[in-house]
Amino acid sequence: MIYFDNSATTRPYPQALATYQEVASKIFGNPSSLHNLGDQATRLLEASRQQIAQLLGKSAQEIFFTSGGTESDNWAIKGVAFEKARYGKHIIVSDIEHPAVKESAKWLAEQGFEISFAPVDERGFLDVQALADLLRPDTILVSVMAVNNEIGSIQPIQAISELLADKPTISFHVDAVQAIGKVPTSSYLTDRVDFASFSGHKFHAVRGVGFLYKKIGKRINPLLTGGGQEKDLRSTTENLAGIAAMAKTLRLTLDKEAQALPRIAAMKAVIYDELSKYPDIRLFSGKTDDFAPNILTFGIKGVRGEVLVHAFEEHQIYISTTSACSSKAGKPAGTLIAMGVPTKEAQTAVRISLDDDNDMSQVEQFLTIFKQVYQKTKKVR
To answer: Residue 35 pLDDT > 90, yes or no?
Structure first.
């Protein structure tokens, strides 16, 4: 089996599964309980929080645990909107955001907020000047992803941070779900970023756990109320085993980042160079440093993406039709549409997303099978 769908989810590290099992079986107390088992759970909870904060160069007071990227995005967008509504109701999100951000923004529009969508260029990068032109006195929030999940374009977070440097009343949220272990933390978690969303299963932790970075001093309304966990901002009994496993995998991922990224980039470059030799293929992702080293999206003229996905699946090679969250709905890649790609062409797009678990032998096998699949599409092309 060759798994090239790591942007959808990653295989949990064995260490993550071992940590999860050990914590779930041995430190099973509720952190809110007053007895010794509760104290044990609290100590591990806070140790995990501290480790994550240190790895990101932040304070433990700025890390809040969630169920994953979708909740973190929803919380950031809706929580900030309602917290700051009395100061303004204008929100800006980029036109290529994940549905967790875009749909949250559209829902807020139904609640009386005004949403502007900042455009991107033909390569999938946010137009910073266009964003600047959208800013208004009543703008309260700007949300831009760090790494696009569909084509891998690395968004200009530093330039946006500079744009917002003298506008402290505007909260800046970054969806960093696809960024961990793929681009340097400093490139997207700048001092100007107020909120950032993360999801454990994107970097080899277990599913159902993530966290939100909230800069000290920034205010946000809770989405979940109840028992008062997470400083009364996110009530529900903490997923302690998942949190501990996530803290461990974050350390493992960042520890090997310097060695892993060149390997991943080299694999992508080989695939990119080989695919570029074929006629009737469009490469939607770039090979340059402003694209993530792990994501390569392409299409074969006249061949729908889901057809390619199943063709490779017959050879136990697993890729996807861009965003996993919209693939089963049969929707064309929203990022490509925002880039100006015609709908029919966007429907051909498939995404390869690599990881350090992959190797060159798998790349060679993929390219061998690709040649066979490509030949079978001749009539359609």
So the answer is: no
Residue pair 305/347 in contact (Cβ under 8 Å)? The answer is yes
CA distance 304 to 143: 31
Residue 263: partners with Cβ closer than 8 Å, 6 or more residues away: 356
What's the pLDDT tens digit per position in 102-128? 999 999 999 999 999 999 999 999 999
| Chain centre distance of CA 360 | 25
| Side chain identity, residue 264 | I
pLDDT value of residue 168: 96
CB 107 within 8 A of CB 81: no
Rounded Cα gap, residues 292 and 140, in angstroms: 29
**Rounded-to-integer distance, Cα 369 and Cα 367, Å:** 5
Whether the CB-CB separation of 7 and 353 falls below 8 Å is answered with yes
Rounded to whole angstroms, how far apart are CA atoms 337 and 295? Answer: 18
The answer to which of 78-82, 183-187, 331-335, 366-370 has the lowest mean pLDDT is 331-335
Residue entry with tokens 């009343």: 169
Q: What is the 3-state secondary structure (H, E, C) of the chain?
A: CEECECCCCCCCCHHHHHHHHHHHHHCCCCCCCCCHHHHHHHHHHHHHHHHHHHHHCCCHHHEEEECCHHHHHHHHHHHHHHHCHHHCCEEEEECCCCHHHHHHHHHHHHCCCEEEEECECCCCCECHHHHHHHCCCCEEEEEEECECCCCCEECCHHHHHHHCCCCCCCEEEEECCCCCCCCCHHHCCCCCCCEEEEEHHHHCCCCCCEEEEECCCCCCCCCCCCCCHHHHCCCCCCCHHHHHHHHHHHHHHHHCHHHHHHHHHHHHHHHHHHHCCCCCEEECCCCCCCECCCEEEEEECCCCHHHHHHHHHCCCEECECCCHHHHCCCCCCHHHHHCCCCHHHHCCEEEEECCCCCCHHHHHHHHHHHHHHHHHCCCCC
Residues with catalytic function? 325
User: Closest Cα partner for 29 from 39, 21, 19?
Assistant: 39
Both tokens assigned to 378: 């001749």
pLDDT number for residue 206: 97
| Mean pLDDT calculated for residue range 138-148 | 98
Quick check: 143 and 289 in contact, CB under 8 A? no
